[in-house]
Amino acid sequence: LRLPLRGTEGGILTEGNFTHKYGLDPEKGLIDLPAHFQFVLGIQGGMRATPRNLMFLVESLPPGSTWSAIGASKDQLTINTMSILLGGHVRVGMEDSVYFRKGELAKTNAQFVERIVQLSNMLGRDVATPNEAREILGLKKSKGAAKHP
Q1: Which string of DSSP letters, residue by residue, matches 83-109?
Q2: Known Pfam families for this protein (predicted)?
Q3: The domain 33-136: what is its CATH number?
Q4: S-S: 112 plus which of 29, 50, 81, 92, CB 3.0-4.6 Å?
């Protein structure tokens, strides 16, 4: 895994690309492990948003990594569901899809959050509070973070 870096901010790699599973070398300063990886599937010019592609990415992660995935536009719910089933985390919101479901524009980001909370509960997964999510990502806790949905 080699990550061409586009920049870091507060210890967060803002953009990188998988190029090889076994080339990761934290001693060369490319990345600190364990790390959190966010996979963005279904964007133009990127990897197709399929369960098989997500499985490949997850199976390619260094041990101890955490991860989340998004599916752009029409693929958001499919990839979110796969992420929950595979033990990963999800990102949702109107930045990734303006449609809540086929033919229906989303009114708020809260719609997406509520749907994922319900889906997670149905699948037996706990949902992180904002501060728990920040801890998973290695970020400082926020005093003004919202309470558990």
Answers
A1: HHHTT-EE--STTT-SEEETTEE-S-H
A2: BKACE
A3: 3.20.20.70
A4: 92
Q: Among candidates 24, 30, 49, 31, which has minimal Cα distance to 39?
A: 49
Q: Which residues contact 12 (CB under 8 A, 6 or more apart)?
A: 137
Instruction: Tell me the β-bridge partners of 17.
Output: none
pTM confidence score: 0.76
For position 25, what pLDDT does the model report?
A: 55
**Cα separation of 98 and 76, whole Å?**
10
Q: 116: exposed, middle or buried (C-beta count within 10 Å: 0-12, 13-18, 19+)? A: buried
